[in-house]
Design a protein that fits this description.
Strand content: under 5%
Helix content: 55-70%
Distance between the termini: 97 Å
Radius of gyration: 26 Å
Number of helices: 4
Low-confidence stretches: none
Number of strands: 0
Order of helices and strands: HHHH
Shape: elongated
Mean pLDDT: 78
Length: 142
């Protein structure tokens, strides 16, 4: 069923134009990122005060959890409340075991890749031992 200008379906929140929907979408995402950065800063500071200074892997984990697990769901919930919509508008369901396995696998890959990353400028001691230096020309008079 095609709707005319100004008409709304039951799933359409009632934006008058596509520009309003676009601004609402990107505005909500920017607000979520700002909230996530604030959450990450608070969590990293608390971790540094109560545990130890966070490493790169720890900061990655904190940012993943605060952005995806706290900030975006909170901002989405607040946006739905502000628009007068409930959870049924989203058509969401509980994740399956397979979905949870993908999520856990993603976290494992993210942490594994960040903890094994080496700088391209660093060389290990074993590489330095195996590398031969070029011989210097002798300075003996001929």
């Amino acid at each position: 069923m095609k709707l005319g200008y100004g008409q709304t379906s039951e799933r359409d929140p009632g934006f008058a134009s596509g520009w309003q929907a676009l601004v609402a979408t990107y505005g909500t995402a920017i607000v979520a990122f700002v909230v996530g950065i604030v959450f990450a800063y608070v969590a990293a500071t608390a971790y540094a005060v109560f545990v130890r200074p966070p490493s790169g892997t720890t900061l990655l984990g904190i940012s993943l959890v605060t952005l995806q697990g706290a900030a975006f769901p909170l901002v989405a919930y607040l946006y739905l409340r502000w628009r007068g919509l409930n959870r049924s508008f989203l058509r969401v369901s509980w994740p399956s075991i397979s979905d949870l396995a993908w999520v856990v696998g993603g976290y494992v890959v993210a942490f594994g890749s960040s903890s094994r990353r080496r700088s391209p400028c660093s060389t290990s001691a074993s590489r330095r031992r195996r590398t031969r230096r070029p011989r210097r020309p002798s300075r003996r008079p001929g």
